[in-house]
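Quick one, tokens below. Sequence please?
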């Protein structure tokens, strides 16, 4: 295929700014999808995406526009999935940066724009939803023009609902997005040697992994012996094809194109996004890959019945073959049995994965409260990353603790600023910059511990701004942390599954909360039971659960006090015996456990 006639581009924007709906109109206008198959947000193909009305996975699709072949990659807007955006950007030369004309520039507008610019993509600014009665087209156009440093006349205006402006947009894509030849890589091979970069993959039981790739050199065809550079794994291409948006076979894929190759590989862990695919006996080096994804939060997933453990393992491996950002390793907890410690890109990602495990694989699960990871240097000098509070070293064994920080951009209406400032203080944030946007809204750039960002920050921000503030973040390097492990003790025994890592300055508050909660949940025992919270080497909070008193005197009526006392005495002696016979083994009922460790119980 002539590279001069290819245009590869991605649609990027803040969540809900109309990316997938605009893609519908582009597909419709170019006749890429037959009318009978057209539906709203047609590229959102997963059930969960359709139900929730959000895009979770990027979706490539090909269109023919006059003499031009357009490869579009629709991307998710939610911050948890920004890794999808970064991968999509490696496959394209241009982006449509959409800004909802009823909302204006939002936090993710800024971060996705920065990503596109860092990647050297040409940016086409587009104002969306211009049909809406709430649209402020000229105002938002000016705002966007200023942001991308062009004149307002260069900003396009579209409606994904009515299709207004879509023809002009298609023209602009052809004119402004460079053809892929510009990105063709240096160090050309003598022959027409194929080379491409993997930006995603899918899995099917019959065909194994299909890699989604951007071809940078040569031509890929069916039957070719190929190799994954990083994995060092050779295989034969079973099929090459393009996205329509389903996987549709095509004779070949040549430089500049976006498509897929079926590999037949079924074992997990071989295929990785960012890896280069090339000729098995080729001479071209690997393409520069991209940063490996880093989980943001960790949570444990246990099958409710241990019989389901193999099924859970298989299901996670299966999901990993269609979601490269999921990571997990097996672990065991005394009470919950064996399960998996999983890394997620954020709380929505966690929710989506566990929901898919439940639905697509029919599993009943226990999911623990999500936490972040810490890097701990122990007194012996070992430096290790801790993903599980129960493995967090004892207070006395720690030399230094580090935790990830986040750089956060918030755009908020001015009314919410004073509440926000208080909130930033509560969450240990440091403000780096404050700017007033054209329409009076405030843009703040802050840095804060990731731990604090995950402590309900999003919800609180929505609350104080009545939903008008937006937030975006990226993870920064670790910094020294003032945190400690908080243990809950029942009858003097720490319960490993209840351990948490909390900020030192919030230790008392958290300790009280945990003790109160358990006190409210734990049934009375035969003897008085102490419930305590311990942190930083001392007991911080404590409550006693009074003993269950079996009504041994209930059948006596009348005033036979001496008989009554005798019975109570006997009961006391019985309890004493129990205590002497190595008590302390309080039986914590399973429901109590679940309520203490599960995230839904927070
Ligand atoms: N009035 C109007 N509403 C629109 C338009 N485009 C999208 N919407 C509505 O805006 C909402 C979000 O649209 P989507 O196309 O799913 O937005 P998105 O940017 O793909 O969302 P994410 O992928 O989750 O980030 C939906 O309720 C759409 O119906 C438009 O041009 N006009
Ligand atoms: Mg979408």
């Amino acid at each position: 295929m002539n590279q001069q006639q290819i245009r590869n581009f991605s649609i990027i924007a803040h969540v809900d700014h109309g990316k997938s709906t605009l893609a519908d109109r582009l597909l419709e206008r170019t006749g890429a999808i037959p009318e009978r198959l057209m539906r709203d947000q047609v590229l959102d193909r997963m059930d969960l995406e359709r139900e929730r009305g959000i895009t979770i996975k990027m979706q490539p699709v090909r269109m023919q526009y006059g003499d031009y072949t357009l490869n579009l990659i629709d991307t998710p807007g939610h911050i948890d999935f920004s890794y999808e955006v970064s991968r999509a950007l490696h496959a394209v030369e241009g982006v449509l940066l959409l800004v909802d004309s009823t909302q204006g520039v939002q936090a993710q507008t800024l971060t996705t724009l920065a990503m596109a610019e860092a990647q050297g993509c040409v940016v086409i600014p587009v104002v969306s939803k211009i049909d809406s009665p709430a649209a402020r087209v000229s105002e938002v156009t000016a705002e966007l023009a200023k942001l991308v440093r062009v004149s307002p006349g260069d900003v396009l205006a579209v409606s994904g609902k009515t299709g207004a402006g879509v023809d002009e947009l298609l023209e602009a894509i052809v004119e402004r997005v460079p053809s892929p030849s510009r990105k063709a890589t240096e160090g050309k091979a003598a022959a027409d040697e194929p080379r491409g970069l993997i930006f995603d993959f899918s899995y099917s039981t019959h065909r194994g992994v299909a890699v989604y790739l951007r071809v940078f050199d040569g031509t890929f065809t069916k039957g070719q012996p190929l190799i994954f550079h990083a994995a060092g794994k050779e295989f034969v291409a079973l099929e090459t094809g393009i996205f329509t948006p389903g996987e549709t076979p095509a004779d070949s894929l040549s430089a500049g194109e976006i498509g897929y190759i079926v590999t037949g590989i079924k074992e997990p862990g071989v295929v990785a996004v960012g890896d280069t695919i090339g000729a098995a006996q080729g001479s071209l080096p690997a393409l520069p890959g991209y940063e490996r994804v880093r989980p943001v939060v960790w949570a444990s997933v246990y099958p409710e019945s241990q019989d389901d453990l193999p099924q859970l393992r298989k299901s996670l491996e299966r999901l990993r073959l269609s979601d490269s950002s999921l990571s997990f390793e097996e672990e065991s907890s005394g009470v919950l049995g064996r399960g998996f410690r999983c890394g997620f890109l954020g709380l929505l990602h966690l929710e989506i994965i566990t929901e898919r495990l439940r639905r697509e694989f029919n599993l009943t699960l226990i999911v623990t409260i999500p936490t972040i990871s810490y890097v701990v240097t122990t007194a012996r000098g070992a430096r290790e990353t801790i993903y599980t509070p129960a493995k967090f070293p004892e207070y006395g064994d720690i030399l230094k603790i580090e935790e990830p920080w986040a750089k956060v951009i918030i755009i908020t209406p001015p009314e919410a600023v004073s509440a926000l400032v208080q909130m930033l203080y509560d969450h240990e944030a440091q403000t780096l910059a404050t700017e007033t946007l054209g329409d009076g809204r405030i843009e703040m750039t802050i840095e804060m511990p990731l731990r604090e960002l995950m402590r309900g920050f999003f919800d609180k921000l929505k609350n104080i701004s009545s939903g008008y503030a937006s937030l975006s973040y990226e993870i920064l390097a670790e910094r020294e942390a003032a945190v400690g492990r908080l243990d809950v003790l029942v009858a003097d025994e720490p319960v490993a599954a209840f351990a948490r890592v909390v900020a030192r300055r919030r230790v008392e508050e958290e300790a009280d909360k945990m003790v109160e909660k358990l006190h409210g949940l734990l049934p009375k025992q035969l003897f008085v039971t102490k419930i305590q919270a311990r942190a930083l080497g001392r007991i911080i909070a404590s409550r006693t659960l009074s003993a269950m008193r079996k009504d041994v005197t209930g059948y006596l009526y009348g005033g036979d006090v001496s008989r009554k006392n005798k019975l109570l005495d006997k009961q006391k002696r019985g309890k004493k015996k129990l205590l002497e016979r190595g008590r302390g083994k309080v039986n914590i009922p399973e429901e109590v456990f679940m309520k203490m460790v599960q995230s839904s119980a927070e």
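The longest helix spans residues 561-580. Residues 97 and 125 are 5 Å apart (CA to CA).
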